[in-house]
Design brief:
This protein is of the alpha+beta class and 713 residues long. It contains 26 helices and 19 strands. The strands form 4 sheets. It has a 6-stranded antiparallel sheet with strand order 3-4-1-10-9-11, covered by helices on one side. A 6-stranded antiparallel sheet has the order 5-6-7-8-12-13. A 5-stranded parallel sheet has the order 16-15-14-17-18. The model is unreliable at 13-32, 301-315 and 692-708 (pLDDT under 50).
Amino acid sequence: MRWLVGWSSVAARFGTAGTGTAGAVGAGDEGRTVQPVGSQLLWGDPDPLWAVGDWRPDEIRISAVETAGGAPTARLAVLGCCGATDEQLRVGLLAARGGALRHLTSWPGSYTAVVQVGRRIGVIGDLAGARPVFHTPWAGGTAYATAALPLADLVEAQLDIGHLAALLACPETPEALRDGTPYAGVKRLPPGHALVLREGSREISGYEAVASLAVAAPELDPVSAVDGVRDALVDAVRARLTAPRHAPGTLPPDPGPVPGMGPADRRAARGAPVPGIGADLSGGSASGTLALLAAGLPGLPGLPGGLLGRGAEAGERLLAVTFNDLTAHGHEDELERARVIAADPRLHHVVVTGGEEALPYADLGGGPLTDEPAPSLVVGERHRRRLASGSADHFVGGGARQVLDAHPARLADLLMDRRRRHLLRPVAALAKAEGPSAQSFFVPLTVYRAARRLSRTSYRTGLEAAADRLPGANRHAPELDTPADASLAALAWSRPGPAARWLTGEALAEVSVRLQEAAVRPVSVQRPGEARARAALTRYAADHRILEQAAENRSQRLHAPFLDNQVVRAARALPESLRVQPGARAAILRRVLAGAGIHDLPPGWGAPSSHAAVQATARTGLRAALPELIALFDAPLLADAGLVEARVVREALRAAADGEPLPLDGLAHLASMELWLRRLVSRRGTCWTGTEAPRRRAVAHGVVPAARRSLQA
């Protein structure tokens, strides 16, 4: 895990005499020093900044404006993959000196920017939430980081049980999650905002315009909007391809010839990615678009030719990885589309097979401690095995659905703009997906009424109604069997998550109070569809960040260009009337590829993935791991915290394994949360070192007992 951390103190006396040769910077009590373990100091007192973890040299870039005496008056640190040139960094720093922080978010790539002008510090988060910023009061000032756990270590924070309840009850409702984290006192910066610190004081300011409820922003014409998405995606891919190439670190020795295993298979078995650049090729439109763009940009190499048994003069190809789940059925069309795309001579296709060892819930006892809990923890081993056959820099198509597709609540936005005719095709598609039945005849009218009701429901009224309904979510949970059911449930300001049905009444009541408090809190009013779409993107980006940590392979970087700032901005400029049409995402990506000169696409391009096949795989994994899951919830920490009843969860696990139509993603939420809590409680060590003081002890003496006391309270 890689992160940066720093702080802003009230005055320079909170630091020691200097950084010293070892880079130790003092803070807190007089004569006591503290610094993160395994860190490199980017700049020192009085407001230090460190980079922690296995950062590559090209992933840390610093620009400075100096006086005639050589002392820096302004500094800019950019950590991550950033496509800006040195001159663009210098211009961005000059603009940030005057307070124009948005300039620092307009470059291609995915990165975190920290700017220091005198004693003023600005830490800029991204638009999606894939690169969050956290902060907490500390030592008379404010400490900030791109991970929450180090800050919890620093202040010995206890667990915030209310936040854990909100994560399970309403994971896509920002009003329930607020700005909290699983650690009490550690706060999260909202997406699209910057944290501005001045000698310890803290200010949170947004750098992105928010849509108004009364007046819609002027829309671009569809052609210009799609061209903007194309340019942003091409720039995002190019930013990764033009970065310096990296080979994996020291690898275990090759065991030599193994029957049925080639060199690539043996490398994957040792858990080492291939040098160079690769991409997922699942057969879906998002991963296929990135693979074709990365392979098609002229003059930009992918997989070194020498690794394929040819000389370097033979050119280089992009490594395309397709995962074939041997335990599932229904993915045959996607695999065939991947094979057709991989016939491109610029791609080197590798098919990774997975059996029972790669099912969801496999290897529950292993896995790293992630920064926060997320449903992706139960599939971490599955993705790690797939990614081990990938490249040192690997493209994934995650986030395309949330960035390009239309959230069902956007239908209410269209009604607010009196654009009823644009609802015809989406509601007709829902009726078609319902199948030939008497109920499908009433789907268009039912959806239209729900959208009209949402368009006429104010923000406050919608949250208050959601708060009133939430305490009964564990008794009257709706069954979301069809796409129409899911769309109707999404046409609301807030809806319970899939795990809410198994929470206790006390936990749901606490989350209900959070919603009631948010309803009367003054906020910048947004249109319901826009607000719900941003919340869904933020939730996905947070889950993707945890998946990166749970499935991490040494020396590998995952790149999700659809979550980049510029791609998100370009996608937000798409007209809503274009978004809501059936197959809009595939049509947009087809036009993106056409604009890049790629026209030959396989039949069935853009066909949606089989939801039934995904559910069948999840149920197969749950059934295979049922004994371990029952043991996990024999005496769960979630029950000690008062969030669930162990007996109820065990009964649900058995019922789901027997085939009852229960929300499997809700059970995944519960299992992931319990796994994360157990890994946190069993953790030893701390992210910090230095002179020991009562509030600077190892986590074994601080956070873990505090967490256990909080759970048992």
